[in-house]
Description:
By secondary structure, this protein is α+β, with helices and mostly antiparallel strands. 28% of the residues lie in helices and 22% in strands.
Amino acid sequence: MRKDLMKAYESDASQLNGKALDVVHPKTIMEVRSIVARTPRIVLRGAGTGLAGGCVPLNGLDVVLDLSKLDFIGSLDKERRVIEVGAGVVLDDLQNYLAKSNLEFPIDPSGRKVCIIGGMIATDAVGSRMIKYGKISSWIKWVDIVDGYGNLHRKGVTELSDYVGMEGITGVIVRACLKLLPLKNRTASLVKVESLEEVVSIVRDLKRNSMISMIEFLDKKISKGLELTEDYHLIIEYEDDSGLLKEEDYRELMKMRDKIYSFVVNEGYARIEDPRIMIDRFVKLMSWLEGVGIPTFGHIGVGILHPCFSRDQEKYIPEMMKVVKRLSGQISGEYGIGILKINLVDMGDKKILINVKKRTDPLNKFNVGKVI
């Protein structure tokens, strides 16, 4: 690829910059196999929406393997509710296709209009409905992967953990069989909350309701930016008619929720983190974030928060990570490790990851310098 065109492939939504040796765009699985077999170092790229630098090429040594053209939608079994898709299928396109058969895929990250299935699998994506549906790994029947020699393998449930959530360091995910659900008619409520303690109390009560599929938290600054009152707010989604907002009102609320990311970025808060914390530690973490002026939203139903940092505030991120660890939280609940958090992985976890990497990628070909 021409060097002037390669620039777009040398960064992702993390805004980290790297340098690529080349960029390739395979259109078939056979092309992927051929490219992998003859290429010594490969960085896997989906839609480039990652916030941890997971697809940033390093030191001019990596060939970027763009999987977005593997966008085929294959066999749909309506009775068994499964579908085969290529790694490059955009989630929104899949949902629109499934809706014609009154089906849906339950994992719903905010980047659904651009994120692709392969990238979602590589990061074990969650999204706003994690409280009910968990991670994407629970909705995969099998994946097809290409190893470092260019060989194609099908991996079932017992082997998924070697590839799902491994951020591309173990092989190239090229196709998957996904499990589906009947399309839901959802409703929602928007609740204003006066204090962080009240947020905790409400969330604890809501989590007992099996019909709730989403509980989203908005802090005061983000609420005001979305033209709500300058209070804390909860967005609560139901899979029955319990919500006060139905049909068009429900859709308008979801559109507002989808504006959060663009709002914080446009306000200059381009570095978005994803710690995960137990609900009884929420007040302590939020109090610290508010104390240093960090706008925050997130999937409060499962404890994943998204503190948003301006460039001047990035100096607070290491301290926030220390606070999260002191509170027995996780440094990444959703976005992955990539480059940004590679030095924050616990030594025990790192040893496990290194062993899996050696077993699945003995040539050390995929995503070198990421995760471990």
